Amino acid sequence: MSSTSNAWILTYILLSLPVHFTISAAVHPIPINGTCHDTCGTMPVKYPFGSGFGCGHPDFSRYVRCNSDTLEFSTGTGIYNISEIDYTTGSLIITDPFMSTCSSMQNSGSFSLDRASPFSLTGENIFVLLGCSTNSPLFDPAEDLCAMGSRSRVCRGLYSCKGVTGIGLPQNAPPSTCCVYESPIQLAGYTLDLPKLQCSSYTSVYSFGGSEGDPVKWKFGISLQYNGSYYSNLCKDCESSGGLCGFAGFDQSFACICRSGKNTSTSCFGQGYTWSGTRESKIQTKLSFGGILLLWLVLSI
After folding, report:
1. What is the mean pLDDT of residues 106-119?
2. What is the distance between the alpha carbons of residues 86 and 232, in angstroms, rounded to a whole number?
3. What predicted TM-score, i.e. pTM, was given to this entire model?
4. Position with higher pLDDT, 147 vs 47
């Protein structure tokens, strides 16, 4: 073989190698910041919720997050702990640390639920306003803001608690300063403005615990329903491959996040070596040694 032919073969090899390296590098998924987890402390975290930024669905990420092993729910009026999630019914329970209960009553802040959020109040909630001024608009007969039929039963139950002294009322005080404020079913967007309503505190009872006459057994918290229509076949495929559904990029497009902490736009199947870097290294090594071997053969002719 002539030296001219050798030169042409050598030129072809040198031009081909970078192309192989470029193709090999292109199979790398795009990494995201942090790693998604399927638990937050002892609480299971499933789609559409996520354990951190880039995890779950972007419409939920601004409201739900994992902070120091505690799953939290944020609104314009505060940050609340999520105590329960029922993924089969699409509901969750949040607790306000300043909300009154039978064992402890204190001055509370207001509560609001963003109308644009994918959450709504359920019909299980019974909001109770405590220590209200007799001049409160709640007691305006023309407004009919209080559920008068159940006020006596619920209010007397709460006012029988020893904790009522925390808002400056004696135990078993008359229920004239208490209002049961039941929320409509599936109410999206809600504001409970205590200063405007001239009340000291509020609580929410979502279950009587099988004993309506014993407020110690009542379950206190705010029951919310979330929109479960975000779950898609794309997410199901991702989860079946061992990944967690999330989002990435400026457009917050779907991303399947694998246990390596990197993502793809589909699923984690068939990507194991690439994500760990092992397969990438093997491809490059074979190409490098193959090129050197071929170059040695050419120069030896």
Report:
1. 89
2. 19
3. 0.74
4. 47
